[in-house]
């Protein structure tokens, strides 16, 4: 219950603190807590704002945490050996349906004819949410799920849901094009309908890339068609929510900043990720091979990872030398964990490497390690859901593996460049002192990194080797978004963890999330459904 209240307070305080809401809406702000299906007057700006913030906050909970663990971004003790059970997603499942999706459906049902812009935005957000539910769970209640006249909705097949989502996006774009009203309460694009149309087109493009192995969908034709549409193509178009900086009386900072900069809960950074940022020749203790194929340090390292402790020449952590050092150190203060490592313990919170400035608005690592606190950084973090660099990486994958036109290496370089630009600009905004310092990302460092990656790509002899490089670079750019990294791994089989850093204990890999037992036991329509976490979702099957 405490966990739910914490997320709920973040949602409300972020809405209250936003300058995007007009003063005329503030009097009825708390009315959005009522059931929108029974409300006699729908406050569209408030409902839209609540839906957007609650969507992102709930995605950043168990879905992003566990997907990021499965894709080796970070390590959590609860999921270190992929220990999903039928209670793992109970809160996030209920919350996604009952909060953002219920409010989005309320907008679709309650908006008037001259409010088609609200409908278009709500329909796009609903399509995005259900696309992720399919990606994560495979099959979910959809067609009957938000119908107030149906108490027990049936489960629907993922491929059928995806087919309808394509149609929903098209309808949403039509609604946005027909809209003439001013959109208020939009926490993401500030009511800019052109940007929402770009988001819709980009969502379809991502879904076509996601389904390139699925024969029932002509993904090559659809992807090519979307390349000729208006897409997210710059930082200003990125589909993301930005949190606030307030701590008291209303907490509205990025949830990962709240959880990691006060030592309340913590992820260990996965050693695979840190080794692929350091690129210093780290050797896997299991395979005896280099964990990274690169030879140049990633310029994003200091923006992604902040060290809380120094390191000495022997690789031990200075601050724990007297009491015995925790294992998991890969050198120079980068204390993390290997996936499956059973040795983590709770009092390491002040020792482990943690999140830097991007994307949670913490600190840039300036070689001054310290135990981070709530006062460090602004907390004005983001959750990058669909960005310009994602479009480039997906295009590179499609150009390499299908008949979609484009040069994969050029697109790979463009994807890395756009990611670097995004991270550097974000760091300069949230930690201005980094600009012009010795720790700022430089054009020269970025160019050297891209040249190194390009050389490795050009030296690759097979399509698989090249795809591994594209997806590995994509994953590093995705830092903070574990859901898309999990999608990429299941779709492509890359990054190649098995060769570079296998999971300790070698547990079977989960191909989907498990629908919680609370849903299965209370919904008679699902009484015969038995979720199998090792059955691939429809788009990941060859």
UniProtKB/TrEMBL annotation:
InterPro entries on file: SusD-like_2, TPR-like_helical_dom_sf
Keyword Lipoprotein: yes
Domain of life: Bacteria
Record's keyword terms, sorted: Lipoprotein
Organism phylogeny: Bacteria, Pseudomonadati, Bacteroidota, Cytophagia, Cytophagales
Annotated protein name in UniProt: SusD/RagB family nutrient-binding outer membrane lipoprotein
Cited Pfam families: SusD-like_2
Species, as recorded: Cyclobacterium plantarum
